Structures
1.
Amino acid sequence: NYFFQYLSFIVWTVALAFCSSVIIKKLCYAAAGSGIPDLKSIFSGFWNSSVVQPRVLIWKVLGLLFSYGSGLSIGKEGPYIHISAILANTLLNIKPFKNIATNETQRSQMLASCCALGVAATFGSPIGGVLFSIEVTGTYYLIQNYWRAFFTATVGAVGIKILLSTPSNDLLESYRTSFESLNLATVQLLAFIITGILCGLLASLFIYMYSKIYTWKKHNQDFIKKITPYGEVIIVAAVTAVITFPLKFLRLDHASAVHTMFTAHDGVNTEELKVWTDSMPFNNSILLACFLYILVKLVLTAVSVTLPVPYGIYIPLFAIGAAVGRFVGESMKLIFPHMKDIYPTGYAVVGAAALCGGATRTVSSAVIILELTNDMTFLVPVLLGVVLSCGIGNLLNHSIYDCFLRNKGLPYLPFVKIKSDSLVAKDVMKREFRYVTRKTTLLRIQSVLDNVLDYAIPIVESDDNLFLIGTISRTTLEEVISYHERLHSYSLKSPIEGEEDGSGNTIITINSQNHNYYDNNDNDNSLLLQEESSQIEMNLIPKSESIDQLDSNQQTQSQLQNGSTDHQDINNNNNSGDIRSSLSLNNEIIIDIVHMELQNPWVVIDTSPIHIVESMPVRKIIFMFMMLGGNVLFVTNKGQLVGIINKTDIVQKGYLHHK
Amino acid sequence: NYFFQYLSFIVWTVALAFCSSVIIKKLCYAAAGSGIPDLKSIFSGFWNSSVVQPRVLIWKVLGLLFSYGSGLSIGKEGPYIHISAILANTLLNIKPFKNIATNETQRSQMLASCCALGVAATFGSPIGGVLFSIEVTGTYYLIQNYWRAFFTATVGAVGIKILLSTPSNDLLESYRTSFESLNLATVQLLAFIITGILCGLLASLFIYMYSKIYTWKKHNQDFIKKITPYGEVIIVAAVTAVITFPLKFLRLDHASAVHTMFTAHDGVNTEELKVWTDSMPFNNSILLACFLYILVKLVLTAVSVTLPVPYGIYIPLFAIGAAVGRFVGESMKLIFPHMKDIYPTGYAVVGAAALCGGATRTVSSAVIILELTNDMTFLVPVLLGVVLSCGIGNLLNHSIYDCFLRNKGLPYLPFVKIKSDSLVAKDVMKREFRYVTRKTTLLRIQSVLDNVLDYAIPIVESDDNLFLIGTISRTTLEEVISYHERLHSYSLKSPIEGEEDGSGNTIITINSQNHNYYDNNDNDNSLLLQEESSQIEMNLIPKSESIDQLDSNQQTQSQLQNGSTDHQDINNNNNSGDIRSSLSLNNEIIIDIVHMELQNPWVVIDTSPIHIVESMPVRKIIFMFMMLGGNVLFVTNKGQLVGIINKTDIVQKGYLHHK
């Protein structure tokens, strides 16, 4: 019977973990892992829509159900935050919210607020939620966003409170503690300091183990894959099941383990404590049980978070930390048997916060645990433990999220370190770049649009001097093209005559009286177009003008006559018309973008892009990207555009290496 | 007897307030007010050492003792934060810490951390302290400083805990609450929302009143001063005493008032409650008492914070907010007499947090109150109240600290609003500016140093083209001068001969063999100087070279001969020597700063200052100042320096007006 139970436990664990892995590998790889590193990358300015698509939500939820349910030593906080972000992004694509977030900054802010909500809802800790999401995702934080994030988190917390309003239904009840007052002016202060330092060291060890396992797997990928594509998941799940089944407390879910550590002591919840001690040989066997729990869980968690399944790391670390704290607390009780107010349960709270704080490098872990336990008595020890643990951790290695981020190869600015301090803009800039000249043709604009992915496209004075005038957005350039195409296809229907305006510019006047292109019903519409076409007059300067401004009048005049003849030819030929040929004609016309801006409010040129000099160190460039946002910096030499530095390039190219 | 008490109460109040006012007006005006606005200005990049000098500390403490003790309706949190900052700054000037904070950024960070400590110590709320100081002083916050601030605050909290370790000694005990669990899914949720909105409105009203009183006083300054220089203080103190004496609960200190509001209800602390109700006519007179308290205190506080005394506003608002909350709670009890878990004391907690949050516009007020009451039960209602109150407040006017800031005329970037959106760099830049040319004389450097206050001084290619090469710090320029003076006073002792080096530059070789200037004991020293003098060879390029490079050899040669003759003349004349004349000679020598940088590691040129174009909108310039720090931006046109924009100028000049 025991054997049968054992076997079925293993089978279930393996089967569920396998399902989760299949979902990730076959259906949606973006749903793998914690999700926090991906969001961190997004918040640092590298938008990646594939991470926040609705389909990721579905597979993440399903995958998490299987992986969390399987009994692997993983948590769910990271995925919850990811799910919140996807929900927010999905909402932002729906009608009433679509206008809110047209720019990426606002969209990111909205996602960030919802991440706070994710934590707030997981732990019922709105304040900790906001602080955690700030610390975990950002480099700096605008105070003006504080209120928004807190508002979102409060709404979430109110929602949770109402949903869980009957105490029997309170999922978070198991974390509640109620301590008597605590006197810090004793040897206990030292014990709390030791707990903090110990947790910091263990957190660093955990991160070190994870990194080693990850690297080992990477180097032996072929060997692992040879056995079976899902070999690693099956093996890890099987080992987890084999190890955790015999000792009952090892296969407790994390919330139960934490509940025991936080609340069960002499006389209270002794039943729960028995689960831990009964299988142990000694009298004070809680010490041994805690030790075993820490050892086994730390290794299993480090292995599990290298698997291709959705996972979180917060709650397992929480449970391990509670065991660490309990271990210190029980030791204190043994060493000072006659001291009055030693609460090993209180040490468990400190340890849980400190280990999480140490691994995630967030001070807000302290706030989360205070909100979660609904008890302020251990405020100072908890904060002390977390601050020390974070500090020790920072001396030794990077946070676990930063390791995830590096291993996933996600772009993240603050995380890169420059290979050499002497590296300057000149060394990293793209010397070959596309630009639009002030006076250009539709054909050239189209060619630039086809070849450039950047959002902001530089406008220079001329091909010869390359003086940077400003930048224009892709969208505006696309609108410029469609505007001219529309204008031209309209002009096909109407007689065109060349004339000279007062300023000496030769212009094409489109006779806007003959609006036979439109039905008579469309009067408003055509009036609008009349205005548009008279507005555009100034902007349609024939190409010849730029070649020879002084002597171009007759030439232009004749060219225009040719033009209008062509037009009318086409006009006669078509109604279904060969638009291509008319377009190619249109492409010959020179457009002065600066003129267009003066006369069309929808043509917006940013005339003050940030120039940097060739000698600017890359360190400073990264700082500017971080603080000012934006994706592109323009390198100029005496006003002349000599290179472009793209944020993505700077991260992806070999100029930099991860710390 | 009653009359005598009344009179002595008035006399005491007036006398103490008068003393405080004398301290401020006669001895140290920088100690006036809250201190938070001054720090806010410092943290936004406008260093003002007069605010953080040790003498301010002494007068602030003394002044606060008198003003707080007098019974004026003021608090002490702001001054505590200010005192912490001064302590930090004083420590930073002492030996072991002097090196830590050589640059202003680090110094500001250190001060900011200590501000967190100030709040942490006042309220025993380390987490709230950190968050409050972040919100109140910053525009944005670097996450990397989170840990430092929390570490400082934790140390402070541990200190406070140990100092107050015996419960009878616990100054914060009076704020402790212990509520039963709360069900939010009832009409109470609505009541909490109403409390939040009401507090937001009252907070805005308070700020409005303060502004009106301040403006009125400003316009009638002459009239007020005519009566007596301390007239306003005496009148306000007298009125405060006259109003608050008859109703005993009005002259309670704020902590006692809060204690009653937070804890006294049916059966508990009824004695304290009687102080409030006994002087009232009706049965449910607590409602009337609260109403009176709110009315009187709100007006008195708004008047008191216009006085020239040290004051805080947090604790009075805390007490008023508690009364507002209590008022709502007691009303709820009247309206729903049969509902079970209505705690008017809980409403008082929500109200206190919400009113403070509304006036200071900080969400962290919620955290402070949760830590202060040591009770998490009302977490969600408190947060809800604060978030709503802040939101309502932000819709109506600016935070009270921003009003202080504006009235004090302190420079603060994020607070200014540009008069016109079309204002660009060209309109605000200084067209007349001092600069150093690449090849310059000591005389010119000295003249620039005498006339410019900026830290970073631009270096341009030449007077003709003004091409911006980089910037150099004042300190470095001063060192360059003293270096050359030292070199010259040394060269006075040694024969000088002109010769031509390989690169065609005419240089002065200082014969470093003859070091008769030094004792024989100083061998090491003189060797050092030998190296220095041979290093400097390249940098001493005679002036003539810059005038005519091609045809200058003979001219230079002759000039050099003249020069060396002069040198030897002086050399012959002196030992106590007329240094002035030798300096004036030295001033003629042309120094190539770029050359100097290449050869002397201590000459640092920032070759990548941030260029901006003339068409950059002022809005964007302010954003750059805010995010990138620094004090100066250089406006260039095709590489040519055309203007300088100074952060201080932009705030002080009329281009901008406060919102």
2.
Amino acid sequence: MEFSSKLIEKAVNEMSQLPGIGKRTALRLVLHILKQPKEQAAFLAQALVTMREEIKYCNSCHNISDSEVCEICANEKRNHQIICVVEDIRDVMAIENTGQFRGIYHVLGGKISPIDGVGPSQLTINSLVEKVKLGQVSEIIFALSSTMEGDTTNFYIYKQIADLSIIVSTIARGIAVGDELEYADEVTLGRSILQRVPFEKSLKSN
Amino acid sequence: MEFSSKLIEKAVNEMSQLPGIGKRTALRLVLHILKQPKEQAAFLAQALVTMREEIKYCNSCHNISDSEVCEICANEKRNHQIICVVEDIRDVMAIENTGQFRGIYHVLGGKISPIDGVGPSQLTINSLVEKVKLGQVSEIIFALSSTMEGDTTNFYIYKQIADLSIIVSTIARGIAVGDELEYADEVTLGRSILQRVPFEKSLKSN
């Protein structure tokens, strides 16, 4: 792409560093910013820089938070004995949205992925294992995505806490509520049969 | 969406002002920025602000440019008698990419669109009409997209220059090179028959 302006070119190049934003999309976004008042560009820029500079992580669960301890970890009414292990803040938001979980979280910050150069030391796995060893935890629920990286990460953590007397569970995989069986993939359908639940139990879950 | 951090919330809100970026995508982009070094966020922010503050437009064709007169308008080798009327810099880039046009451009900055609150006075139509009236122009080529807004804009300009002795043309519409007829829409196929060109002429165009 040849630009008639170095300023545009630079802005497009920076924008297209973002995931899923190609040069064309970046140009569209940049041209939109050009049509807006100057303050708009300044607000966007300021919000990004301030966020990046001042962001904090909860001391306990490592979720993004504006205080030392996040609202969920600070909430006395939550069950601090049950810890749901997730990848990032999006998973916390998704599970919180269901209103079905009253425990607390542990945010790993990613999954073990040798291809992307992410090893266990870059994640908050040690902090989780320490927490479990203190003996205040009764159950760990793995809620990572069921990819090879997710399974690897689950297993890596599991090996370190398997000897401790806690329950280790993983969220149920199966056909999504409302989905038709004929369109489901074989692995999911197979798993939903193997891990079938008593009918009475399924009635209570809504 | 409920965020555990006001900083994240603000950044996501600003990002999701951009066209085609919803809250979910904005969150994905923002989390990506969080994982990058601080400088990366600063570079992006700076590029956007600098661009918005210092951007210039060519005095002649109104295209985005880093100088008073853009490279195309300043190029003596281009045919200044033929003006291609386009909507924005993307169209200039697309036509320049073909290497088939040796005239100059006139960038309108948009199309007349009452729904979006864009009237003729917000576009550079007057400047184009003035240019034509000076008598140095032999042909105007409309290259706006063939939507209702594009057609309206073409017609609005045409009315003001129809009395002047210049050629007014529009880019050819038809079946794209390489496309199969059976998948073409009726309007395009119909037009490509009505506006058929002599076979010998079609041989030269590549």
